[in-house]
């Protein structure tokens, strides 16, 4: 709690007026001008004389000075400039304090936060005599001033002209010379119609990261959801279509990444890239080297920054000397100048000189003069911050990605963090960059050193904070939480990396388990894998078999998402062994479920069925009803994929019952959707829609956004079958929006595929083609092979229907290869039937019949009525085309009988129409025969 | 209540002044667990000259207690006050202390001529020794006229003043004395004998403020020169830095002194955090002896007592600052709101001074109520963020004004 300046002054005046025998007051301020103003106010308001005694290096005993002045009792003595004083001053004050008490004067000690600490530490007994402390610092807290760029006119003009020519330009120069500031000024002063993008390569060193940052800035937030190939393409398009500026700051962190260099070199007119780097990057061509500031420019910069901080313009002749002392380095000047408000410039000069001398003496590794100047300026500036600001800066320093305003308070634990942040920004130690507070890289390095030196235990707190953060935001289906992770995941990863140095194994495990779903959702496979490996090592170090098993299961999800089946399977088998040894049967059931899904993804139905059945049984044994319901739902999917409808329905209903019994609405919704899928697969549209509706109501009521998106998509699929285009479009649009909002890439791909089918059904070939292409692109990126095979098949269907047999055959064959690879028999049946359609269109009857017969065997084997009916109809058509009318009649009768048992009116109508044709053809043929 | 009561409170609660003279009779409060009575008994029963160490936190009321002790023992001993502050030295050495004791005793003996008439030979001999052997290279000169006793008194006064203020004089005197300190002790011992013979009272020197020198010098003084500090043949009470009580050397060297007494802070709570009513009542009495309890609205006084942590100077400062804040707010009494505002401001004072390493140590101490002596703990005791209590056992707790800081991560 800080009082306002007026109230504090009121209190101080009252104290001096009301005490009979004088008092000691400590007045805290951070600007000389404030002290002067307030001393003048005291003179005005107090009847007694107010003496001012400024301390300096020659002053050893202020008590003696006061005595010599023969000041009358009741007078006020204002003592200031403690930092300039000889250290003896503190000793004399401490030991002769009683002389001052006996003199019955009121003493006001004006101290800056730095001097305050010195006074309390070096003259503790004198300090203990204070009657009260008056805080005038908060009163003068200014908002961080808007920084005006100063000087460098020639360099800005030359650089702007180079950038106007397009392509990459490297802005090079020594550390602290002001490269970043020049680049920032360029961004603000030049106009690029397509926009300007700023990427800090120290934080985003990979091409993928840089492109993501550029995509979000140039295209919008939605670009986060694009697959990386697509994203690179879109950013490339944007850069070539309209003038954009891409600034890559601290590029030295990424200067050896050849893939990135190639990409930057590909940037051409009308866009430009400004690569800001301490080291030269010859591969990129043109380099503009920024030299040190001229003395006059340094002086202007110093003066402006000092004035911003409240410097009153005293002793300007010292500024050139100060600038010379710090080698005219802009960063050093930015750090020092604000201190001119609280220290006489001569004093500041002396302190810098001393500090450089100290650093020079202690520097065994031979720090360059530039670094010595920078270090000295940093130390001086940092030491004079309030304790709150120093704590805040130290504590924020482990965060590589800066910190959002919303987290500063909770993370640092600094109560009045707004003041501390404002102070740090005013003193150029922090910068506000798009809602995040960040360090200059060099300043961060210094503050990190300070942290390690003074508060090493903070690293643990940093880790614990992000463990809690990751835990709180682990539900990636909640858009708010997902967005929180989008903002802070780099810091969370840094926390995970720190666990290693701290040997904090438990946190390494917790972070991996909480962050993995997010990283998988965002397709950050390698980050997730690294995290999991770290956690695995941690679990092994703790000899925690249960954790090791769960991590191995998590690791398998990383592999599974990339189609690295063998590794996924090995990881899961290892997980099972470890969990069995540890006796963690509940986790074993979960691993079995994942294993079942890995098999299912590969079309290894038997093994999938076995693993999932085992998972169901194990969950049952340990009483894990949720696990049982999950395994039953997955098992139901296996049965459905194999066309074993009754078993699929039974498993699904069991899952639904458990969910109902346990009041688990979330799972109830999902089970109802699965049930709808089973009916849809059998062509029972009404039942399917009914279940989807029930599922949707539940998903919405419990906020299950993934479930909502998928159920709406399934509805859309049924509407396509029912040819209700408007409903279908609405449903797909809604599903796609949700999927993108929650970053559900798989869901997005599936919806795009259904969109493709909608356009296909409507005959919009190009639109359908685009949708399938985007869908396959995502699926390939996600290594979703089952999805890819299905999309390719439907894409081929499009070409087949559009009478582009060559294209169709290629796509079918691509799909068939994957399907056989996955051992997906039912999928193979469908593909064969569709491939036969191409052959039929080309009148390659024999090939068509062969494919259809192979397909029929599989459909009949799986009891798939719709598939069987449709293939029988196609076979009838082939027979009829070859004038085998009797056979055709027989086949079409079987087809109609079968299709009547489904609700697919379209197929039945087609079969009935074909039947008529075949009968007519038979009559014609019979008539011709009788005529002849 | 009117504003004049607040004015009175502001002036009667001056953190810079211990109770003196008449104030001792009017305002002094017997505090629980204070060693005053034990010290008195110990001194009265000691047949041989004893050297007592007396410790307490800065601001715990040591000066007031010693003044009260001196007052109570006026009839039993020839009480002399000496203070390191009169020497104005931070680099206090044993020579300075022996000299200060000697000067104080000799001055008292020559001042109080009604009680003591030192033999003229002894006075002359001492004066000659001082002016011819010790001070000839300085500006200190014996007055030309006056009695021997008067001359000696004046020379001693000049030595005391110039020793503190003139570096050159101090250097010369120290150089001279360092090899002849035993001669000085011998002469002072003779004076002690004369004083005891004439008054029937053993001299008792109460030496304050040595505890306020820096720890390195204090350590050297008390642990390396204990023999010199014990050589003067009279009772001496030395104030001893509490932070040194946590050093291993203290346990080893305690035997060099007769006794160590600790003035604990007044307990506000028991070790289990339940209120310690006896301590709270004593603290309330410290306040209500000076101003009316009606000056405090509601629970304000209880809150001040709790927040003081039993540290007298902080109790005094809390009352004074609250009175000031109430006056500034144009209120006629001290309310809880005012106390909270003042407490927050004083907590900020801790926040500005505590270093990160202190927080961890303080959190631990707050939890366990025990400390393992190390540099951080010594610093915490020094800056008063950590307070020591005794009631049966010795335990520590964090200053209540700093509690809120520890609640933050």
Describe the structure.
The complex is a heterodimer of chains A (932) and B (409). Chain A is α/β, with parallel strands linked by helices. Helix content of chain A is 68%, strand content 6%. In chain A, the strands form three sheets. In chain A, strands 2-3-4-1-5 form a five-stranded parallel β-sheet. A five-stranded parallel β-sheet of chain A has the order 7-8-9-6-10, with helices on both faces. A three-stranded antiparallel β-sheet of chain A has the order 11-13-12. In chain A, helix 3 links the parallel strand 2 and strand 3. In chain A, helix 22 (458-472) runs antiparallel to helix 23 and helix 29 (605-622) packs antiparallel against helix 30. Chain A is elongated. The relative contact order of chain A is 0.04. Mean pLDDT of chain A is 84; it is low at 139-145. In chain B, the strands form two sheets. Chain B has a five-stranded parallel β-sheet, sandwiched between helices. In chain B, helix 1 packs antiparallel against helix 15 (312-328). Chain B is of the alpha/beta class and 409 residues long. Helices cover 55% and strands 11% of the residues of chain B. The two termini of chain B are 42 Å apart. In chain B, a hairpin with a 1-residue loop joins strand 6 and strand 7. Chain B is built from 19 helices and seven strands. Chains A and B meet through helix 1, helix 4, helix 5, helix 6 and helix 7 of A and helix 1, helix 15, helix 16 and helix 17 of B.
């Amino acid at each position: 709690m800080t009082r306002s300046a007026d109230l504090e002054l009121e209190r101080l005046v009252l104290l001096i007026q009301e005490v009979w025998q004088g008092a000691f007051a400590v007045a805290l301020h951070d600007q000389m001008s404030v002290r002067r103003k307030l001393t003048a106010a005291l003179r005005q308001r107090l009847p007694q004389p107010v003496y001012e005694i400024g301390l300096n290096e020659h002053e050893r005993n202020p008590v003696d000075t006061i005595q010599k002045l023969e000041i009358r009792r009741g007078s006020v003595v204002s003592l200031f400039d403690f930092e300039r004083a000889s250290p003896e001053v503190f000793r004399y004050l401490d030991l002769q304090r009683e002389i001052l008490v006996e003199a019955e004067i009121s003493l006001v000690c004006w101290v800056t936060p730095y001097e305050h600490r010195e006074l309390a530490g070096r003259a503790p007994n004198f300090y203990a005599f204070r009657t009260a402390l008056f805080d005038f610092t908060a009163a003068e807290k200014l908002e961080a001033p808007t920084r005006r760029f100063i000087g460098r006119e020639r360099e800005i003009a030359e650089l702007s002209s180079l950038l106007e020519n397009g392509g990459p330009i490297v802005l090079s120069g020594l550390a602290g010379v002001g490269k970043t500031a020049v680049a920032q000024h360029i961004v603000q002063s030049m106009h690029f119609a397509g926009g300007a993008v700023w990427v800090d390569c120290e934080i985003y060193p990979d091409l993928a990261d840089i492109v993501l940052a550029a995509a979000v800035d140039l295209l919008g937030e939605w670009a986060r959801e694009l697959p990386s190939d697509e994203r690179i393409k879109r950013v490339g398009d944007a850069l070539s279509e309209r003038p954009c500026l891409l600034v890559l700051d601290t590029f030295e962190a990424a200067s050896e990444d050849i893939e990135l260099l190639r990409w930057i070199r590909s940037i051409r007119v009308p866009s430009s890239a400004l690569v800001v780097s301490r080291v030269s990057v010859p591969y990129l061509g043109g380099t503009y080297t920024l030299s040190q500031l001229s003395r006059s420019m340094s002086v202007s910069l110093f003066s402006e920054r000092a004035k911003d901080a409240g410097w009153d313009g005293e002793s300007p002749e010292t500024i050139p000397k100060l600038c010379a002392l710090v080698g005219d380095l802009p960063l050093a000047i930015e750090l020092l100048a604000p201190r001119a408000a609280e220290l006489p410039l001569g004093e500041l000069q002396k302190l810098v000189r001393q500090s450089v001398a100290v650093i020079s003496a202690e520097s065994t590794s031979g720090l360059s003069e530039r670094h010595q100047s920078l270090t000295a300026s940093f130390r001086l500036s940092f030491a004079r911050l309030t304790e709150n600001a120093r704590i805040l800066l130290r504590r924020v320093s482990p965060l590589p990605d800066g910190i959002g305003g919303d987290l500063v308070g909770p993370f640092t634990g600094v109560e009045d963090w707004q003041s501390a942040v404002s102070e740090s920004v005013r003193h150029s130690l922090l910068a506000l960059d798009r809602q995040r507070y960040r360090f200059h890289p060099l300043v961060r390095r210094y503050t990190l050193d300070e942290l390690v030196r003074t508060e090493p235990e903070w690293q643990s707190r940093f880790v614990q904070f992000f463990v809690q953060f990751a835990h709180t935001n682990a539900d990636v289906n909640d858009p708010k939480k997902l967005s929180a992770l989008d903002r802070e995941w780099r810091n969370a990863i840094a926390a995970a990396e720190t666990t290693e140095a701290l040997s904090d194994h438990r946190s390494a495990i917790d972070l991996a388990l909480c962050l993995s779903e997010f990283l998988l959702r965002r397709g950050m496979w390698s980050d997730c894998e690294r995290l999991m490996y770290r956690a695995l090592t941690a679990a092994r170090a703790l000899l925690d078999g249960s954790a090791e098993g769960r991590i191995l299961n998590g690791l398998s999800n990383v592999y599974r998402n990339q189609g690295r089946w063998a590794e996924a399977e090995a990881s899961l088998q290892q997980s099972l062994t470890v969990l069995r040894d540890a006796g963690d049967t509940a986790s074993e059931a979960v691993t079995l479920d994942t294993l079942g899904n890995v098999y299912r993804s590969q079309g290894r139905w038997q093994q999938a069925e076995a693993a999932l059945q085992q998972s169901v049984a194990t969950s049952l044994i340990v009483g894990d009803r949720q696990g049982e319901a999950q395994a039953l739902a997955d098992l139901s999917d296996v049965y459905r994929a194999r066309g074993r409808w009754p078993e699929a329905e039974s498993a699904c209903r069991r899952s639904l019952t458990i969910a109902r019994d346990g009041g688990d609405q979330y799972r109830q919704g999902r089970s109802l959707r699965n049930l709808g899928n089973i009916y849809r697969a059998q062509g029972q549209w009404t039942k399917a829609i009914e279940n989807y509706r029930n599922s949707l109501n539940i998903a919405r009521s419990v906020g299950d956004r993934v479930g909502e998106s998928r159920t709406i998509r399934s509805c859309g699929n049924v509407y396509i079958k029912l040819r209700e285009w408007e409903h279908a479009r609405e449903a797909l649009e809604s599903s796609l929006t949700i999927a993108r909002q929650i970053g559900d890439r798989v869901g997005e791909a599936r919806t795009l595929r259904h969109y493709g089918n909608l356009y296909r059904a409507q005959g919009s070939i190009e639109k359908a083609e685009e949708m399938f292409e985007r869908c396959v692109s995502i699926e390939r990126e996600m290594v979703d092979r089952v999805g890819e095979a299905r999309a390719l098949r439907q894409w081929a269907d499009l070409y087949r229907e559009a009478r582009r047999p060559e294209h169709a055959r290629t796509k079918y064959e691509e799909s068939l290869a994957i399907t056989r690879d996955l051992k997906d028999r039912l999928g193979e049946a469908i593909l064969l039937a569709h491939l036969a359609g191409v052959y039929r269109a080309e009148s390659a009857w024999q090939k068509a019949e062969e494919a259809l017969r192979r397909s029929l065997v599989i459909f009949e084997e799986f009891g798939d009525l719709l598939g069987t009916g449709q293939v029988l109809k196609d076979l009838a058509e082939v027979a009829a085309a070859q004038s085998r009318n009797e056979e055709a009649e027989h086949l079409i009768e079987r087809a109609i009988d079968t299709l009547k048992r489904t609700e697919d009116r379209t197929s039945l109508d087609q079969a009935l129409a074909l039947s008529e044709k075949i009968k007519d053809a038979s009559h014609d043929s019979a008539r011709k025969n009788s005529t002849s | 209540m009117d504003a004049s009561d607040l004015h009175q409170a502001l002036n009667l609660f001056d953190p810079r002044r211990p109770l003196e003279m008449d104030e001792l009779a009017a305002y002094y409060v017997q505090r629980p667990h204070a060693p005053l009575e034990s010290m008195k008994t110990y001194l009265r029963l000691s047949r041989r000259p004893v050297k007592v160490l007396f410790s307490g936190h800065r601001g715990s009321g040591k000066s007031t207690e010693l003044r009260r002790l001196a007052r109570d023992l006026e009839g039993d001993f020839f009480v002399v006050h000496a203070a390191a502050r009169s020497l104005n030295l931070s680099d206090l050495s044993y020579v300075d202390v022996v000299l200060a004791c000697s000067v104080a005793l000799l001055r008292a003996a020559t001042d109080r001529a009604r009680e003591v008439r030192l033999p003229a030979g002894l006075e002359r001999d001492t004066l000659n020794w001082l002016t011819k052997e010790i001070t000839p290279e300085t500006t200190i000169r014996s007055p030309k006229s006056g009695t021997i006793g008067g001359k000696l008194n004046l020379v001693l006064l000049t030595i005391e003043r110039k020793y503190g203020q003139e570096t050159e004089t101090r250097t010369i005197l120290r150089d001279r004395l360092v090899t002849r300190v035993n001669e000085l002790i011998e002469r002072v011992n003779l004076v002690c004998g004369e004083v005891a013979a004439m008054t029937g009272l053993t001299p008792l020197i109460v030496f304050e403020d040595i505890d306020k020198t820096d720890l390195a010098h204090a350590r050297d003084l008390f642990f390396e020169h204990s023999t010199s500090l014990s050589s003067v043949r009279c009772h001496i009470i030395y104030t001893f830095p509490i932070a040194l009580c946590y050093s291993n050397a203290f346990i080893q060297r305690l035997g060099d002194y007769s006794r160590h007494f600790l003035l604990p802070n007044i307990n506000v709570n028991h070790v289990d955090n339940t209120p310690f009513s006896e301590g709270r009542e004593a603290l309330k009495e410290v306040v209500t002896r000076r101003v009316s309890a009606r000056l405090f609205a509601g629970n304000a006084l209880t809150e001040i007592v709790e927040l003081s942590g039993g540290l007298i100077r902080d109790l005094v400062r809390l009352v004074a600052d609250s009175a000031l804040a109430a006056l500034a707010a144009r209120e006629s009494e001290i309310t809880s709101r005012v106390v909270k505002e003042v407490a927050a401001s004083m907590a900020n004072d801790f926040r500005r001074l505590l270093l990160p390493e202190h927080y961890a140590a303080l959190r631990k101490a707050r939890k366990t109520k025990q400390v393992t002596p190390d540099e951080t703990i010594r610093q915490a005791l020094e800056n008063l963020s950590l307070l020591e209590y005794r009631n049966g056992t010795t335990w520590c707790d964090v200053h209540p004004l700093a509690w809120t800081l520890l609640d933050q991560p």
